[in-house]
Amino acid sequence: MLSLLHDLQPALYTHRSYVVSSGDDFSASKAAEFESHLKVVCDAGKDIPDIPSTYDISVIPRARKIHQPLWTTPLSALRCLLACFAILRAPNSQSDSNSNLSQNGMVDEGEDAIEYAYPDLIIANGPATAVLVILTALLLRFFSIKGSEGKMRSIYVESWARVNTLSLSGRILMTGGMVNRMLVQWDNLARKGQGEFRGALVR
């Protein structure tokens, strides 16, 4: 997945959030490693504007574990969905600290005073957990939750191993029209109208 971000422009995406499933310590460490590399590149680049660049890594419960009984899946999927809502609706820590002050100088803790840092773009791949992240974004946009307008566009990248057919996650997202763009890594799938082919992206 991180190979997709090698041309990332920190000046455009000044904050990056990585969402990984519980137990996936490898992906979390690779994300931190990528950010360290990105910082070195930015520090060395003379033409890159000096813009604050931050990131965070969030861990959410798996929608379904390997060999998990199907009858328990709805419960684990619900836990994952609730965690996705908590992440996508995280308060904007970069907003002006004075924005929540009322006229009398007291902190206004009302819902309208909270500014949420909805992501501009969601790039996802993988199994059910990725589907629930995109579903959460879709629900927030569908109900026009304050601040979500024009946010959370989504791109799903199908697995390189899917040569002739989409994965179950891919079929759910494609059939339901849940993503803005579906990228496949084999031209055979694109010719069937099952996504856009942009070469090998993620292995």
Could you walk me through the main structural features you see in this protein, from its secondary elements to its overall organization?
- This protein is α/β, with parallel strands linked by helices.
- The protein has helices spanning 25-44, 73-88, 128-142, 168-175, 187-191, and strands at residues 15-21, 54-60, 121-124, 153-157, 181-184, 196-197.
- A 4-stranded parallel beta sheet has the order 3-4-5-6. The chain has a two-stranded parallel sheet with strand order 1-2.
- Helix 2 packs across helix 3.
- The chain is globular, with a radius of gyration of 19 Å.
- The N and C termini lie close together (8 Å).
- Residues 95-111 have low confidence and may be disordered.
List the helices and strands and how they pair.
Elements: E1 15-21, H1 25-44, E2 54-60, H2 73-88, E3 121-124, H3 128-142, E4 153-157, H4 168-175, E5 181-184, H5 187-191, E6 196-197
Parallel strand pairs: 1-2, 3-4, 4-5, 5-6
Give average pLDDT, whole number.
82
Query: Percent of residues in helical segments?
Result: 25-40%
Structural class: alpha/beta
Alpha plus pi helix count: 5
* Strand arrangement in the largest pleated sheet: 3-4-5-6
Low-confidence stretches: 95-111
Note the main sheet.
4 strands, parallel
Identify the notable features of this structure and list them briefly.
single chain; 203 residues; alpha/beta; 4-stranded parallel β-sheet; two-stranded parallel ribbon; 32% helix
